[in-house]
Amino acid sequence: MEENYMRIALEEAKQAFRENEVPIGAVLVDSNGKILSKNYNRKEQNKCCIEHAEMLVIQEASKIKNNWRLNNCSLYVTVEPCPMCMSAIKQSRISKVYFGCSNKNVLESQISEDIAKLSDANIPVELYHGILEDECKKILSLFFDQKR
Questions:
Q1: Distance CA 97, CA 116 (A)
Q2: I need a surface site. Which of 24, 38, 88, 119 has the fewest CB within 10 A?
Q3: Could you give the dihedral angle defined by the CA atoms of residues 21, 22, 23 and 26, in that order, rounded to the nearest 10 degrees?
Q4: Does 54 qualify as catalytic in the annotation?
Q5: What is the pTM of this model?
Q6: Minimal CA–CA distance to 29: which of 51, 7, 45?
Q7: CA distances from 1 to 54, 69, 71, 72, 127 (A)
Q8: Which residues sit opposite 74 in a β-bridge?
Q9: What are the E-state strand segments in the chain?
């Protein structure tokens, strides 16, 4: 099942690629398996640094549920969330994050993992990695190869 949702996230990443955005896609799913929202990076399009795929699906799902708490939801994203996105994931009470490939910035990756594992007022976020990893890496590599 995880691969099915990741394939949808990859389709979102491909749309980002076509629009000259860093090809990262995300899908947010409720506990019944219903897709609440899906999106891709739109930083260039919207000229805003917080327009990451994860942030956009959280905003959309919150509107749909009419609640900022996204308890028992799972996020599927093609690349490991950055610290900003992981903080939003944690604050929104998303319980699980499945990602394709890791962030190449080891320090940023460790910060994100630390945020996810915090035992504060919110429950820790469960992280699962390597879902369709090769496909997720491939689209990123192709994008940045074309930029160089």
A1: 9
A2: 119
A3: -90
A4: yes
A5: 0.95
A6: 7
A7: 20, 24, 20, 16, 16
A8: 29, 96
A9: 25-29, 35-40, 74-79, 96-101, 126-129
